[in-house]
User: Fold this.
Amino acid sequence: MQKTAIYKLKIVLIAFIVLSISSCSKDEDLGNLSDTIIVRHKNADMPAYIHGNGSEKIFLITLHGGPGGMGLSFRGTAFNSIENTCAVVYFDQRGSGMAQGNYSEDGITIDIMAEDVLALVKVIRKKYGGDSRFFLLGHSWGGTLGIATLLKNQDEFLGWIQVDGTHNPRDLYLEYIANFERVAAEQIKIGNSISFWESVNKLLVDVDTEFNRDDIQRLNNKAFEAEKKLRSDNLINRPRGGRDDLVFKYNLLTFYWNVLNTQSKLDPGIQGILSYTDRLPEIKTPSLILWGKHDMVVPTVLAQEAYDNLGSNIKKLVIFEKSGHSPFGGEADLFAEEVILFIDQNK
Amino acid sequence: MRKYIFAVLCLFALSLNAQDKISDTTSFLDKIEFKVGYSGNLIWNNGLNLGAEYLWKEKVKTKTRKDKLKTITHQYLFNGNLTFSNNFSTETDAGIFTNYGLMWRRTNTKGRQISIALNPLGYYRSFLPETYEVKGDDVKKVFLPGRSYYAPSLSIGLGKLRKDKKLTARYFNINLMYRTPYNAGAAPSISFQYGYRFNFKKKK
Assistant:
């Protein structure tokens, strides 16, 4: 009786060990990744949330806007489809989201943040294998950071996806003014939200004609307001879906505190000063430029400038007709299609 | 660091002084109460708070108003807390923190309490998920990853005595904590604490 019990116990134990080992199989995990890892680099601990299909070991590293945004803000709608194709890495940059650390004010620069992205690449290689391959996507401020990263080491990436991001923060101020003048004239002519666009014209009279730090903030705020008006006038699609549980992922007090701190430290060295336009020809990586036609935050003229100057032999510019600053929300299906096609063609 | 050591020594000295003053009237168990409760902000962080309060000084004022006897008690207590909280959604905001300081508490005739606690001595240790440190081309997995912060706090609370109950009182505190150095500055946080106090007083 006792021998039978011990025999059965051994079988259960062996079965448990075999099942445990098979459940730890890397291939099975890679097909449906849902990992959170932290990259510790130069006194910062930065979360990377990795989701999706990593079976081909293709990782799309996403760089959020801001500076000071949230990595997971991309998740949902378009990125749900992209996660079926590859593993998407949602990265909280230094001083953003839930990233923490201990560094001086000199410890947060675009140069160090670009090194952080390259450190993330090394960490993913360490965790998932040296044969991992990478695409880089940057939205808004993430577009600036992405360019800075590629200029440090573009050999790490199979492709670059620029989404309504600026390679030229130096000239953004004047582009704001020119774009507002154009759009305000168009909208008043067709009778859309006339009082709002007249208030835009008043603002344009009020702001400096040369770069002014206070005025760029006013123009930036007005740009977001303008997109709301364009949405209510049905020129921009309303964002579909999105992540309902995002509010539970980030402590909003910590998040807003980080936004204020990070922007106050980074912006003075970037706005009205930094431009990568002259260095874009150095980027030979295949590039996809995705832009909303009605982007008021980073005007569309910068999309054409990026396309014209990038040194890549393989490059494509796609303008989303019914989108503003975030086409992945407004035209999610089309956005996902373009990204998946680009990855398939260049992997 | 020197000023923290000085502050600890001051508190220790005050504590010894306080013990001298009231040791002949009440025992240690009469003066200490423990507390256990929820700590967090319901949405992002949720956790458990354990603590102890040691009575240092007490003033009882009695007055008659409209033929009713009113008793107002003012207490000064040494206060210590140990709290664990976590964002269970992402695991990127887990931490354990402990703080020590002084609390003032007023109790009215009906047993309703208000309190203010200032905890200048605070330590926060964050716990991070799987972490890799990158130095040049070298990538190493970090053992027990996390960060340490100096974390003073201020707590404002309400409470109610529960007569003849094992759990002697309940409390609700709003706790403001400041973590530093955090990134290139400091980070504030707000949490609520709701729980019960109990003691091991000898029944008379």
